[in-house]
Amino acid sequence: MARIKDILAEAEAAWKAGDAARAEALVEAVLRKAPRHSGARALKRRLGRAGGVSQAEVDAVVARLQAGDLAGAEAALAPLLRRAPGEAVLWHLRGILCQLQGRLEEAINAFRAALARNPALAAARGNLGTALAALERHEEAVRELEAALAADPSAPESWNSLGVARAALGDPEGALEAFGRALALRPDYANALNGRAAVLRGLGRLHEAEADLRQARRLAPDDVAIRCNLANVLVDLGKAAEAETEARAVLAAAPEDAEMQRTLGVVLGQLGRREEALAELRRAVEMPGARAEAWRDLSTHHRFSADDPLIGRMEALISAPDADHETRMHLGFALGKAWHDAGDPDRAWHYWTIGNAEKAKEAPWSTDEAARLLARAREVLADPAWQARVAPGASASERPIFILGVNRSGTTLAEQIIGAHPEVWPGDEQIWIDTRARAELDRLAEWGPEDLARFA
Question: Does some domain include residue 59?
């Protein structure tokens, strides 16, 4: 049983931290046991002069927040703030309420008000960082979150938000560290698994991303964002049939999800069901919130003519004053394909130039990285032991397996003639091959025949 001295020390610390309600509750607990205790009575008088609120009143607000009764929480909190505007804990609760209501600027102001009254309130600083990250003010978010975690490293939510902010600032290793800390504190934290998977996917570590997302889906089976991300990783891995199942499940729960509608179209294209793919992608570009990438995916399946109204719509989007990097990149490639179809190479190259310029900002070409990948591939593939293990009895011919082309792949005369040979399987463009090959390269030396069959 805690000693009275320790309870009063805890009450004093709570009061100094701005949590007068908890301090009062602890003092009352002491006075119930020792009504004449001079230290407890003195602290109670100090709390009374500070105009604090009771723990029961704070608990009532918290209970309403936890129950999702935001209107009730706001009604209960407002008179407390009028009565005790100096209490940091009340401003912190006000920030949480505004955050849950989506009023992020007001939430930030409330968290700052809490910190002005008590700079040591680490939870308020962590929530401030989370709100800043939600508004994509990532540099500010990182500063606040790192400060909060230096004071209290036991908050998994703050580690998760730090991972999100670091990832957005192009620091994948720092993001992975932060997500890892969040998961060390809370192994069943589905949001942190989802966030880490997004970073792993960006690094080409697709199998790790898939594992994280499968675990996240088990923990939160109704979370649409997690299932969307899993479907996209399955697309990257070439697991099109499973990706289709996942995409359709998401759309059954969230039929207006434009990104998953796009993913379904991509998956159907991978499965060779082009008419279905085209229909789904047409739906995707018409949905609110559709990304420019949906237009690019549509362009791979649609045959354009010079008077096609879709060209005009895409040109209006790419030339809009608010067209961002992603819009210009994807629509640049889509319009290049469109004008190539329409027989206007000058316009096609104009738009391809735009797309490539934007792409270079996102992933600048690295000769050293390309050389490393080629050297590693040669090292593995030239090993006679690997060749004998993976393809016993296969042809010794050094002729290439793949025919590499541009976006007309599968329709050139040469490919049609070669594809008619009984030992040749024309597969058209398989956009996942490069992504997956990079992910598999460092594991290639251990492959056996079953791995090659799975890849094929």
Answer: no
